[in-house]
C-alpha cells in the first residue's frame, strides 16, 4: 500500500504515545501527521485541515476519546462526520470496546501498539471500508463486520423490533 498521500490526525494527551505513533506512521510511509493534545484541539484541526484518518486515544482529559468520537459523528458543527476513526487504548475490556464501537469508531487498537497493528487497522479502513448507517440512536460505520450470504429478510437479531417470535 502507498500511504504518502494520507493525512492523519493523531489525538492523544500523552506526548510519548504521540511520538511513538508518529514514528510508526513514518515507518509505514505516512508523512503528513497532525497532532492534537485533546478532543477540543482535534476538532479545531478537523475544521482547519482535510483529514483522511483520525487516530485517537480513549482516555484523555478534559474530553475523552468516546466523547470526541461522538462529537465528530453527531455534532451539527462537525466538519467531517464520516472521517474514519481508529481508537487506541490500554483499556480494552469488552465494555470499553463496545462503547467505542457504539460511538462510531471504525477500528479499535489495544496497547501496546505495534507497527503491524497500526498497519492492519489502516488497511482495514482502506481495503474493507464499511458503509455508514444512520438509525435513531447511532450514526457511524456499520457495526456488522460479517456478511451472511444465507441471511434472508430485514432482521439480523432475534430482538430486532418488528421481528416475529421464533417459530412463526
Care to describe what's here?
This protein is of the alpha/beta class. The chain has a single domain, classed as Rossmann fold (3-Layer(aba) Sandwich), CATH 3.40.50. It has five helices and seven strands; from the N terminus they run βαβαβαβαβαββ. It has helices spanning 15-27, 39-48, 65-74, 94-103, 115-127, and strands spanning 7-11, 32-36, 53-57, 85-89, 107-110, 132-134, 139-141. The protein has a five-stranded parallel β-sheet with strand order 2-1-3-4-5, with helices on both faces. It has a two-stranded antiparallel sheet with strand order 6-7. β4 (85-89), α4 (94-103) and β5 form a beta-alpha-beta unit. α2 (39-48) runs parallel beside α3 (65-74). The termini are far apart.
* Overall pLDDT score: 87
Helix content: 25-40%
Radius of gyration: 17 Å
Tell me the major beta sheet.
Answer: 5 strands, parallel
CATH topology: Rossmann fold
Please count the helical segments: 5
Modified residues (4-aspartylphosphate): 57
Domain Response regulatory: 7-126
Keywords: Phosphoprotein
InterPro entries: Bact_response_regulator, CheY-like_superfamily, Sig_transdc_resp-reg_receiver
Amino acid at each position: 500500500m502507498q500511504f504518502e498521500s494520507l493525512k492523519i490526525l493523531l489525538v492523544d494527551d500523552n506526548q510519548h504515545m504521540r511520538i511513538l505513533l508518529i514514528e510508526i506512521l513514518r515507518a509505514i510511509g505516512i508523512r503528513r501527521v497532525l497532532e492534537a493534545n485533546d478532543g477540543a484541539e482535534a476538532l479545531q484541526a478537523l475544521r482547519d485541515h482535510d483529514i483522511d484518518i483520525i487516530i485517537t486515544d480513549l482516555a484523555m482529559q478534559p474530553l475523552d476519546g468516546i466523547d470526541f468520537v461522538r462529537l465528530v459523528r453527531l455534532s451539527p458543527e462537525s466538519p467531517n462526520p464520516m472521517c474514519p476513526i481508529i481508537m487506541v487504548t490500554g483499556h480494552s475490556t469488552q465494555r470499553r470496546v463496545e462503547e467505542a464501537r457504539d460511538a462510531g469508531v471504525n477500528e479499535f487498537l489495544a496497547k501496546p501498539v505495534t507497527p503491524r497493528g497500526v498497519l492492519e487497522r489502516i488497511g482495514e479502513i482502506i481495503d474493507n471500508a464499511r458503509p455508514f448507517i444512520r438509525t435513531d440512536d447511532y450514526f457511524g460505520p456499520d457495526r456488522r463486520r460479517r456478511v451472511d450470504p444465507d441471511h434472508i429478510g430485514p432482521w439480523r437479531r432475534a430482538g430486532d423490533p418488528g421481528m416475529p417470535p421464533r417459530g412463526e
